[in-house]
Design brief:
- The complex is a heterodimer of chains A (360) and B (383).
- Chain A is α+β, with helices and mostly antiparallel strands and 360 residues long.
- Chain A has 3 domains: 184 residues, Rossmann fold (3-Layer(aba) Sandwich); 54 residues, Roll (SH3 type barrels), CATH 2.30.30; 104 residues, Translation factors (Elongation Factor Tu (Ef-tu), domain 3), CATH 2.40.30.
- In chain A, the strands form 4 sheets. A 6-stranded antiparallel β-barrel of chain A has the order 11-14-13-12-15-16. A 4-stranded mixed β-sheet of chain A has the order 8-7-10-9, with no helix packed on it.
- In chain A, strand 1, helix 2 and strand 2 form a beta-alpha-beta unit.
- In chain A, helix 3 runs antiparallel to helix 4.
- The C terminus of chain A is likely disordered.
- By secondary structure, chain B is of the alpha/beta class.
- Chain B has 2 domains: 128 residues, Aspartate Aminotransferase, domain 1 (Alpha-Beta Complex); 242 residues, Aspartate Aminotransferase, domain 2 (3-Layer(aba) Sandwich), CATH 3.40.640.
- Helix content of chain B is 40%, strand content 15%.
- In chain B, strand 5, helix 6 and strand 6 form a beta-alpha-beta unit.
- Chain B is globular and about 65 Å long.
- Classes of the chains: A alpha+beta (360), B alpha/beta (383).
- The interface between A and B is medium-sized, with 24 and 22 residues.
């Protein structure tokens, strides 16, 4: 529908499908990136009467997104490959190529709204809030936004489907894209297993002692409760942290995060905001929570939650800052400080954890 | 639009269409039927067989019609290999690294699923196989050697004049994929003692969906398709009368004046090749001498392949890069890998044909030079 909206507005549009991997036909539908999806996109281009190309970015995607994804899991973090893909493939390399070829702008089907107001580009939550994708685009630069179009962000998903159906576009009935596009059937453990192998380690209980063994810390995510193999405990235990091969577990209250250290911070708004009180979102489908930010060294931020605290914040995910509907920027979560420890010696804990983050 | 992709496919010649039309409009009979309608269709098919036979200088009964070059290659490779092994003559196949996938993948399947031994002989940096090296890999167990007459990507002509007679002296059957070479380079089937040869009609101004397997009656072949026993029992299936008639007409048209057309194409090719190679950082891939007269294949430094191809299409030049794969993305070419072509640059194939004019070629050189400069100035379009 992004292409149709632009064509109908009178833009001179060229369709490009990005070949990100050699995904065989017939794989359970991911809604994008497979051979079947390439054909669907081609048929849409045929109907719209626009040129259409497949560009093979599989090498760039593998080296900049997939390898990083596996490395991050190996290091005990929970990476967000969509963020990396936007940062390192779509809004850098692809936009650069499009510009090199004389195109004015790159349009994608992301659910994001873009406006130019008061001298800068402003990226806001999508009209369809449930589809909003600002979280995975916080790293875009003002220069990139100047050459970006997100036409579908102005409409709700049902409205877009209706418009696509009216135009006879095959995509009207396509499943929404979801999960991680290069992982068949959403089987993360099945994907990582052969790549990372057996990496046995300890499951460390609330009192700091080993209470179980595991085959690989990458099989766990902070906040996870099921599948720990710890049945019989009096209180439910959750993964609270992953350090090296150690998986730490604790009660639900230990998941509560008071403070986040974010690294590699980018301001999509162009510069840091005037106000220190914003809302921070720590996962793709999460809710923004009131937070206060402070600089913490070069491109690093400390984000403290003012009121409600997030649960199960995983290192490697993005923390994204909002002022109302406008996305201002974000960074990669390097470390999350549990709520309980901040009460006594927040500065000491913070310093210790910063050192550890730097060492990584 | 300047169409310089005649190696991908060629336009249907008007005379060919005229020959086909009666068989689509009213002469609808099945050539295998004994009644009058069948006889009319059969007459068309047999005349086409004679036209193809004359163009190849083989007896008409050696000509079998297929659904295309891919089927002809599959039937030749699998059929001849199966029959030879069944007769206890051996189970070793030799081919080259730059064959079309219809040959390479058939051979790979014969190895993986059928237990044949396979030797894939590399080629030199010029895109030509060393005949001695190929012959050295032939053993007493070898039953089939498949070497293309000319390569579909870089257009290099293979030394069948040396390979063919040497294989015949050892009693080994030679199959050649002549899909690109037919009409553009001489094919001396008798002199080279070729046992089987594949053609595709749409590569010489005929219709798509028709091919030829010229199979010597002395070469046993097990059928791939079983059914009604048409085409000497080797290729069952109701004959595609309009397509076959078109194939015959196109073969006759191509053979008539082939030498003059090759000379004309050579002039166009040289203009194109010289014009492009005059651009800084543009070099010809593959031999400049052992080369089809319509093929230019260049490496363009400082440009990404996908980006340049899109840029050329935008300015109206129809060229090709790598080889088209299913999704439409340029697949890494096994031919370019085999000749050790430069990585990280665009590789562009331009192929002239009957409809190409001197003006086309001049304009194409100017448009390509401009597109390359524009893309390079903007960083080359790399991702």
């Amino acid at each position: 529908m992004a292409a149709a909206l632009l064509v109908e507005r009178g833009d001179d549009v060229t369709g490009v499908h990005l070949k990100m991997a050699d995904t065989p036909s017939g794989l359970p539908g991911k809604g994008c990136c497979t051979l079947d999806d390439a054909r669907d996109a081609r048929r849409v281009a045929d109907l719209l009467g626009i040129p259409y190309y497949v560009w093979d970015l599989s090498e760039a995607f593998r080296s900049r997104v997939v390898d990083d994804f596996v490395r991050e899991y190996a290091a005990g973090r929970t990476p967000n490959p969509c963020v990396r893909c936007n940062e390192r493939v779509k809004y850098t390399a692809l936009l650069q190529r499009a510009r090199a070829m004389g195109f004015d702008a790159l349009a994608t089907g992301h659910h994001v709204r873009l406006r130019h107001r008061d001298g800068r580009w402003r990226m806001s939550r999508a009209t369809d809030r449930s589809k909003d994708q600002t979280y995975v685009l916080y790293m875009a630069t003002q220069a990139q936004l100047a050459h970006t179009r997100w036409p579908v962000g102005e409409h709700t998903k049902p409205a877009l489907r209706a418009m696509a159906a009216e135009r006879g576009l095959i995509t009207a009935r396509k499943p929404d894209s979801h999960d991680i596009c290069f992982i068949p059937a959403g089987d993360l453990a099945g994907y990582l297993g052969p790549r990372l192998g057996r990496r046995p380690g300890s499951v460390i209980g609330p009192d700091g002692t080993e209470i179980a063994r595991h085959d690989g810390a990458y099989q766990f995510t902070v906040g996870q409760r099921r599948g720990l193999g710890l049945a019989g405990n009096t209180q439910p235990l959750y993964v609270t942290a992953i350090t090296g091969d150690d998986v730490h577990v604790g009660p639900r209250s230990a998941l509560e995060t008071a403070e986040i250290l974010a690294t590699d911070v980018r301001w999509v708004a162009g510069e840091p905001p005037q106000t220190r009180s914003l809302a921070a979102q720590v996962r793709y489908r999460g809710h923004p929570l009131a937070a206060v930010w402070a600089p913490a060294g070069h491109r690093n931020l400390r984000i403290c939650f003012a009121d409600e605290r997030p649960d199960g914040v995983a290192a490697g995910q993005a923390v994204v800052l909002y002022d109302g509907d406008e996305c201002l920027g974000g960074g990669t979560i390097a470390d999350a400080t549990p709520a309980r420890t901040t009460a006594d010696s927040s500065d000491a804990v913070y310093a210790a954890r910063t050192v550890r983050a730097d060492r990584r | 639009m300047i169409y310089l992709d005649h190696a991908a496919t060629t336009p249907l010649a008007p005379d060919v269409l005229a020959a086909m039309l009666p068989f689509m409009e009213h002469d609808h009979g099945n050539p295998s039927s004994v009644h009058r309608a069948g006889r009319v269709a059969r007459e068309g098919v047999e005349r086409a067989r004679e036209q193809v036979a004359a163009a190849l200088d083989v007896p008409p009964l050696d000509v079998l019609f297929t659904s295309g070059g891919t089927e002809a290659d599959n039937q030749a490779l699998k059929g001849i290999a199966w029959a030879a092994r069944a007769a206890g003559r051996g189970a070793h196949i030799v081919t080259t690294a730059i064959e079309h996938h219809a040959v390479l993948d058939s051979v790979a399947w014969l190895r993986a699923a059928q237990g044949f031994d396979v030797t894939v002989v590399p080629v030199g940096a010029d895109g030509v196989v060393d005949p001695q090296r190929l012959l050295d890999s032939v053993t007493d167990d070898t039953v089939l050697v498949s070497v293309m007459a000319a390569n579909n990507e870089v257009g290099t002509i293979q030394p069948l004049d040396v390979i063919g007679p040497a294989l015949a002296a050892r009693g080994v059957c030679l199959h050649t994929d002549a899909v690109q070479a037919f009409g553009r380079a001489p094919l001396l089937l008798d002199e080279w003692q070729v046992g089987a040869l594949s053609l595709s009609a749409h590569k010489f101004n005929g219709p798509k969906g028709v091919g030829v397997l010229a199979l010597r009656r002395t070469v046993p072949a097990t059928p791939v398709l079983h059914g009604g026993g048409q085409e000497r029992g080797v290729r069952s299936g109701t004959l595609n009368t309009p397509g076959i008639v078109g194939c015959g007409a196109a073969a006759e048209l191509t053979a008539r004046g082939a030498a003059a057309e090759a000379a004309r194409l050579r002039t166009l090719r040289d203009t194109l090749s010289d014009g492009l190679c005059a651009i800084d950082g543009v070099e010809l891939n593959g031999s400049s001498t052992a080369r089809l007269p319509h093929n230019v294949h260049v490496a363009v430094q400082g440009c990404d392949g996908d980006a340049l191809m899109t840029a050329l299409d935008t300015v109206g030049v129809c060229a090709s890069t790598g080889s088209a794969c299913q999704s439409g993305a340029a697949a890494p070419s096994h031919v370019l890998a085999a000749i050790g072509a430069a990585p990280d640059c665009a590789h562009v194939r331009l192929t002239c044909g009957r409809t190409t004019t001197a003006d086309d070629v001049d304009r194409a050189v100017a448009l390509i030079a401009e597109a390359v400069k524009r893309l390079r100035d903007a960083g080359g379009g790399y991702v």
